[in-house]
């Protein structure tokens, strides 16, 4: 099997695993009443950008090989590194969902009896789910030997992050006040000890 094909297969398995992790939390979240927040146009653009960059464009590339002009040589080391990074992303993604539990939402929402979560990955960063998306994008760049499909995940993540993180933090400050401010002082946004 060619190294490029192996990278594509690992990427597909990773995307399927991502959905398998998210689905039960998505189902449970529908049962908990929303008391504040909701989807805005910038939220929709951010989510659509992430979906386009982390799933649609690379999925189209894996299925068709288009745009072949943007291909570059695949290497075993890049597929190995991409696999490790993507698996790390899925691990953080799962831990984040598990720790959030009933507080989880795909959009910026405060749910009934919402609690501030600061354990598990939230003890190191305020937004570990964004950390997982960053790692997914990085893993994708190593797994898919195509400049467009490979890098699209990082671009999709960047758009989502830039459009949502400030709004999310404002919403948490409004809801939790000084408790969230103290939490912000102890943690970084998405990269432990750095940012």
From TrEMBL:
The chain crosses the membrane at residues 6-25, 45-70, 76-95, 116-138, 144-163. The keyword S-adenosyl-L-methionine does not apply. Keywords: Membrane, Methyltransferase, Transferase, Transmembrane, Transmembrane helix. GO terms for molecular function: protein C-terminal S-isoprenylcysteine carboxyl O-methyltransferase activity. GO terms for cellular component: membrane. Gene3D superfamilies: 1.20.120.1630. One of its GO terms (biological process) is methylation. InterPro entries: ICMT_MeTrfase (IPR007269), Isoprenylcys_mtase (IPR054851), Metal_cation-efflux_comp (IPR052527). It is found in: Membrane. It is a multi-pass membrane protein. NCBIfam families: isopcys_mtase. PANTHER family: BLL3993 PROTEIN. This is Methyltransferase.
């Amino acid at each position: 099997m060619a190294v490029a094909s192996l990278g594509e297969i690992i990427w597909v398995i990773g995307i399927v695993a991502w959905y398998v992790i998210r689905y039960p939390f998505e189902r449970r979240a529908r049962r908990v009443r929303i008391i504040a927040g909701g989807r805005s146009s910038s939220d929709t653009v951010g989510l659509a950008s992430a979906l386009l960059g982390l799933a649609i464009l690379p999925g189209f590339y894996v299925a068709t090989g288009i745009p072949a002009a943007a291909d570059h040589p695949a290497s075993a080391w890049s597929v190995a590194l991409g696999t490790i990074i993507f698996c790390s992303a899925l691990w953080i993604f799962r831990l984040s969902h598990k720790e959030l539990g009933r507080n989880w939402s795909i959009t910026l929402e405060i749910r009934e009896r919402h609690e501030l979560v600061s354990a598990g990955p939230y003890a190191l960063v305020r937004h570990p789910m964004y950390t997982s998306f960053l790692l997914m994008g990085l893993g994708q760049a190593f797994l898919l030997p195509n400049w467009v499909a490979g890098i699209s995940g990082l671009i999709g993540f960047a758009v989502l992050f830039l459009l949502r993180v400030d709004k999310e933090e404002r919403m948490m400050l409004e809801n939790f006040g000084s408790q969230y401010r103290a939490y912000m002082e102890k943690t970084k946004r998405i990269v432990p000890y750095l940012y």
